[in-house]
Amino acid sequence: MKQNSILIALPCLKVGGTEMQTLRLVEALVAGGYHCVTVCYFEYDFVMRQRFEEAGSKVVCLSAYGKRPDSLRDTYKFLKSGLKRVVAEYRPKMAHVQYMAPGAMPIIILRRLGIKTLIATLHTDSSIYRNLRLVHYLQKYKTTAFTCVTEAAEKSFFGSSQLYDEEFVLKHHNHFTIHNCLSADFPWNDNNEMIQFEVPVIGIVARLERIKGVDFVMPAFAKVLKQLPDCQLMIVGDGQLHEEMTQQQQELGIKEKNVIWAGRVPYEKLAGYYKQMTLVWMPSRSEGFGLSAIEAMGHGHAVIASDTGGLIEIIHNGVDGLLIPSGDTEALATQSLKLLNDREKLKQMNAAALQNAKQFSFEHYKTQILSLYEKLEK
């Protein structure tokens, strides 16, 4: 068993896709015999912190109350002091930095603290960056490897892409794609039970934020109800747009019986909600990867999603789901009605979705991560 310490660094430990994928990284490394130390700079959720600890990682939160320093100068001093303490105590051989936040500070500080093997993971495409010169500088001079969660994202940063596999030959500095994955205990729906329904249920599993496009949901659902008045909408999640969505529901005359507000649901209970859904919507304005999409597909659901970000790479349009322009409520409603009224087509898409999701299994991801880290150790 290896005893090398790996430092996993990220700005927040909240309930979100990036944190869940970082948890998968920790689980893969622990399974490979590595000792993981997860460092959270700022905000954290006690439940998520506990999940990392249960996965076998030591968790260090640099900010006792989850607060951020007021200025860039104070942020740098805060990170330098905190990371210096962690490096001195745990003496990690490698560091894996999640996100480029805040800026390049964690990468630069860790290099100055003597960490020579540095991996950085980009969880979005380049659209949120005003200038890519800093990313290119870090890739060439400060990191051993940059990993991206989709090839589309990798191309947007570096102009080319390559999926990592066990045959990949590491050079002096590298960039490649390792897709996100589902959990090791994911409850695959191999029986395709969802096709049997009397009242169709359209599902949304997302933070209720503008970036997730949830403000498009009620207008599109109102159009569906004109042809399928008994259809239900199940909303799993919470966020800043909850009030706006309830107001839309009232203004559009959508009855209470047609909308199920499930609220925020613990990850381990999500399967029970997916089982009640017939079709899943993902109308995001932007999506770095689209973890909820592969979760839905793993539960045997075709997904109708925006043609943005990682969703384009995950969903094969017309085969295991449908891609529509972001914000096009007419297309969202029309394509949903076509599928809900053609059960044979929906059944075919559901089966294809399940098979597609299996390429994002935890076992496949673990094999890739352990292969990469073994090469980095040489």
The tally of strands reads 13
- Mean pLDDT level: 92
- Uncertain regions spanning at least 5 consecutive residues: none
* CATH architecture assignment name of the largest domain: 3-Layer(aba) Sandwich
> Helical element count?
14
What distance lies between the first and last C-alpha atoms, to the nearest angstrom? 16 Å
- % residues in beta strands: 15-25%
Classify the fold: give the CATH topology of the largest domain: Rossmann fold
Q: Given the C-alpha coordinates, what overall shape results?
A: globular
Major pleated sheet:
7 strands, parallel
Salient structural properties:
14 helices; 378 residues; 39% helix; seven-stranded parallel sheet; six-stranded parallel sheet; Rossmann fold; alpha/beta
Q: How does this structure look, described?
A:
- The chain is an alpha/beta fold and 378 residues long.
- It has 2 domains: 5-184 and 361-377, Rossmann fold, CATH 3.40.50; 193-359, Rossmann fold (3-Layer(aba) Sandwich), CATH 3.40.50.2000.
- Helix content is 39%, strand content 16%.
- It is built from 14 helices and 13 strands.
- The protein has helices at residues 17-31, 46-54, 72-90, 105-112, 133-141, 151-158, 217-227, 242-251, 270-274, 291-298, 311-314, 329-340, 343-357, 362-377, and strands spanning 5-10, 35-40, 58-61, 94-98, 117-122, 145-148, 174-177, 201-205, 232-236, 259-263, 279-282, 303-306, 321-324.
- The chain has a 7-stranded parallel sheet, sandwiched between helices. It has a 6-stranded parallel sheet with strand order 10-9-8-11-12-13, sandwiched between helices.
- Helix 7 crosses helix 12 (329-340).
- The longest helix has 19 residues, at 72-90.
- The radius of gyration is 21 Å and the shape is globular.
- The model has no long low-confidence stretch (mean pLDDT 92).
